[in-house]
Amino acid sequence: MEDRVRAKPRRASDTERYEARVALGGLIALIAITAAWWALALWPAADTPAWLARTRYACFGIRETGLPDAGGWIGLIGGPLGMLAVFAVGWTREIGTLLRRARSSVVLAATLALLALATAALPAGAVLRVRGAAPRTIDAAGVPAPAADFRRTESAAPPLELLAHDGTVRSLDALRGRPVLVTFAYAHCETVCPLVVRDVLGARALLRDQGVPADHVPAVLVVTLDPWRDTPSRLAAMAAAWNIAGPHAWVLGGAVDAVEATLDAWRVPRTRDLTTGEVTHPSLIYVVDREGRIAFTATGGASLLAELARRL
Question: Are residues 303 and 156 in the same domain?
């Protein structure tokens, strides 16, 4: 009777199958949650409902391009990485069991391969979405503020004199008499930086198309945020990658100390990961008037920047 009442112990093979199923289910859930989260932020929509626009703005800080701001990108990337870390630490044994069983199971190996492809497709899709983004207006309340809501300031612009991508030394003082768009980016950034550069160049193109006199079209200065890797010899390649060409538009860099001093003077918030070299930073664009004063501070949007420049 005692033998009949006592539960039969689970065999080792049953335990391994259970652990493998748990690990596989966890991986599928992690990828599905990440895909849904990224789709909420990045899925293109021609006519975005007001509730969705407000949700995207609250969660990701959506800009005029329809893409997240710097904080939104940190959440999109950091959230899944955090969940993955918890999964790896909490289910180490189950993951090990899954990998061992996959060596002898064609079905499990094929499933893991499909999951790996799905995981790789997420950042690839995000990159394509960023590259294909076009400035557009978001109609949701409060997103983004129109140019009329920007108050003009009269603070003197800090000094700015660095090496340009064409091998010359360029300074903000030498551009007196012309408005200037000053922004900050670095070559290894594939999210915020290309959008910021596209916005400042797009503002110049809009003003030219609208027949604004040449000396009223802003110059563009893009200061590197990563002087350790964006060395003077690489500045020309950065300018080519960002399509910065023609007169009055330069990528600036130089010695690390000189660049860092400039970034400090312009109060650019940034954090550099000493292990990877990646720089966390906000989208920041200064609109400088003809007398060298900071008239406006914006976060992006080609049409917004063009309108602010027209107000100078």
Answer: yes
